[in-house]
Design a protein that fits this description.
Blueprint: H1 16-30, H2 38-45, H3 50-55, H4 59-82, H5 87-101, H6 107-115, H7 122-134, H8 139-148, H9 158-170, H10 177-182, H11 189-206, H12 211-217
Helix pairs in contact: 1-2, 1-4, 4-5, 4-7, 5-11, 8-9
DNA-binding region: 37-56
Keywords: DNA-binding
Protein name: Transcriptional regulator
Length: 218
């Protein structure tokens, strides 16, 4: 006996939701939000377009779910970092960001682009909803705590250390193609992951006291 589909659910692949999120990620990071249609996403995913409304309700909600789906691994680590003040937590945040974004290298550029849109634009609203639901990583507070715990090297300005941390984490994914070409830099997945470890070493050796020293000072 053939099983009936749930009420209101169009016929389709049981993996349709996952396929739609993957297709949305590919399309939204390459094209402006307004140029991506529901039909484009459905065609990319090779599923019935009606499934978008069934699973997500609208294009805007699909976009918001796509943002959350990609950023969840990073934000879960950031949330963990809010509750701790160890240098190793910064390393975990850095590696989590690189590990996630290396599979979605255009995603940071999408977030950067969304940040410049009017707040009224529905894609910018979805970005704000994502940030609000997942919480904010307050790196300033964390670096102030590291200063209080005497983890920073003597003379290191916590605000400058905070900016250095964010720059090392975010900028490599935002570098324009022309800048990379002009400097003969080719970035691959392996190089990004190697860069994550390299940047962690820069932080540990350039900003923070060796662990045994910071422990002794407390």
């Amino acid at each position: 006996m053939t099983k009936k589909n749930p009420v209101g659910r169009p016929k389709g692949d049981s993996q349709a939701r996952k396929k739609l999120l993957e297709a949305a990620t590919q399309l939204f990071v390459k094209h402006d939000y307004d140029k991506v249609s529901i039909r484009m996403v459905a065609n990319q995913a090779e599923v019935d377009a009606a499934l978008i409304r069934y699973y997500f309700g609208s294009k805007a909600q699909l976009f918001g779910e796509m943002l959350k789906n990609v950023s969840d691994p990073v934000f879960s680590t950031l949330q963990h970092g809010k509750q701790h003040t160890e240098v190793s937590d910064l390393a975990k945040v850095m590696r989590a960001y690189y590990t996630t974004m290396v599979d979605n290298p255009y995603f940071p550029k999408l977030i950067y682009k969304l940040s410049g849109l009017p707040k009224e634009h529905e894609s910018a609203q979805q970005l704000n909803l994502m940030i609000g639901s997942l919480g904010r990583f307050k790196s300033r507070e964390l670096f102030q705590k590291l200063l209080k715990n005497k983890s920073l090297l003597d003379g290191v300005d916590p605000e400058m250390a905070q900016i250095s941390f964010l720059s090392l984490m975010v900028f490599p994914f935002l570098m324009p193609e022309r800048l990379l070409e002009a400097n003969q830099i080719e970035l691959s997945k392996q190089k990004f992951l190697k860069l994550a470890d390299h940047n962690v070493q820069l932080l540990e050796r350039g900003l923070f006291k060796p662990k045994e020293h910071s422990n002794a000072a407390q």
